[in-house]
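Q: Hi! First time asking for a complex rather than a single chain. Here are the components, and I think there are two in total. Is that enough to go on?
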Amino acid sequence: MSTILELRNVSKRFGGLRTVKEVSFTMDSGEILFVIGPNGAGKTTVFNLVSGFLHPEEGQILFQGEDITRSAPHVSARKGIGRTFQIVKPLPSLTVQQNVMLGCFMHTGHLHEAEDAASKILDFLQMSHLKDFEARGLPLAALKRLEIARALATKPKLILLDEVVSGLTTSEALALADLLLRLREWGVSVVGGVEHVMQVVMKIADRVVVLDYGAKIAEGKPADVVKDPAVIEAYLGAKYKEMAH
Amino acid sequence: MTALRGWRIFALLGVTAVFACLPLFLPNDYVLQVFFRIVLFAALGLAWNLVGGYAGQLSLGHVAYFGVGAYGMAMLYAHHVPLWLSVLFSALIATGFAAIIGSIVFRLRGPYFTLSTIAFAEVLRLSVTNLPAAGGAIGLSTPALFPPGAFWKMFYLSAVALAFVSFLVNAWTSRSRFGYYLMAIREDEDTAAAVGIDTANYKLRALMASAFLTALGGGLYGSAFQFIVPDSVLSGEISVQIAIITMLGGAGTLLGPVVGAVLLLAASELFKNKFQESHLLTYGILIVIVVLVLPEGIVGGLKQLFQRKTKPPASVAPLAATPAQGGD
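A: Yes, that's all I need. Here is the structure of the assembled complex.
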């Protein structure tokens, strides 16, 4: 399998605070990788760095072997990096279908083609019954799916899902997890980011990268990572690390 | 408005044409001149709508392009450029000016953007006021685009033509990828960038198209009133008027600017005759009403009223627990 994404010693500083410290990892195409970590670990910053919304001070980000460290967000999007936002960012006065059409417009200038492509994606996400509603006022579960639908509409090779299951009920989250597994059918590699919905991570992640205070503290298969003393300490405190052994 | 196609377009065109011709039979030039201003400001509102409506960038400096249109026409003509070419060239100059201003002000968002548009327009007004070559504070006389016989009739028809072109540009925008991109920028710039939209570039394109049409309007206006001074064609009041017309009618809608121009200018003209300066009061009251009762303008408000289906019901059907079969 070829490498789709590679981070090499990436660091990002906000003032005196380093929110991402020399993070490196690679990801194969077709893989589902989750970046996890406690609140404030730097997950969203990593996503913003990969999608071009932020640029690192140090390090390099490669997408399909190409250096995208300094790419603008719309350039990264056109190269094939789709993303969702942790705090959902729908286009509120447009309908659900129009929201998705905006993603489709990356590949067609025709309204009808964009409408058709959007309908297909909404079918896949089982949101067809919502397509004529304005995005504002939709429940969170629907808005989270709308984020995915819009990102998917750009036909990305890599999709970054920032906290896409947080704030959902367990059944909603598991339903969405089933769906994320099936994103592979669309030829998409997935980087997910979650703080604590471990059920989803355990169920669908091929591999997990754990961040704590901006640094990578563990990496590996989900089942192994949750037993890692450093991970337990990061999540629960040093006391529980002792108990785990 | 999304279903404007086929025979309906022709019906609309026919009705518009009939109405457009009616004022030609008016008995006096004064009334025709009022109609000229109404239609001209409808055109300006439609031009502004591209930037302020679809792209959601609240420009309060559009008088800059209007003024460049008027002054450019007069000054180019004074330098022996053929009359209609000077109108066209001044519109192109305004477009270039928009490209320069836009590449600076679009770095700013929200109120900072708006303030910077006002600042640019004021800088231009003050520069022209202090520029002897442009007549300074005394002003310039402008060439007449039409012979005295059918003077106001021709100006009125030119304004109708400009409004019509502006309307077509808006209609195309509302049904094109370009327009969708502008709306995405209005709704959320981050989301727009995340789906691959070069937001700075699209805002600039909208502004340039808008500036071109606005400058043509400025050229017409300058010529129609035969004499221009900075306080007439570069006054901030015009920027505000254009924006209010569009927002009153409904920013980001096709018919909004037209409705707004008719209402606001007709109202202020009627009140002006009765109470002199009270038309300014009319503006004030209308702004308050719009902000309180109709934040989306008259056309926008009516759309909300008649398209209830766009509002989600109290409880939408729950999303399915298992996804549908068959992806791509």
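A: Chain A touches chain B through 57 residues (CB under 8 Å). Let me know if you'd like any chain examined more closely.
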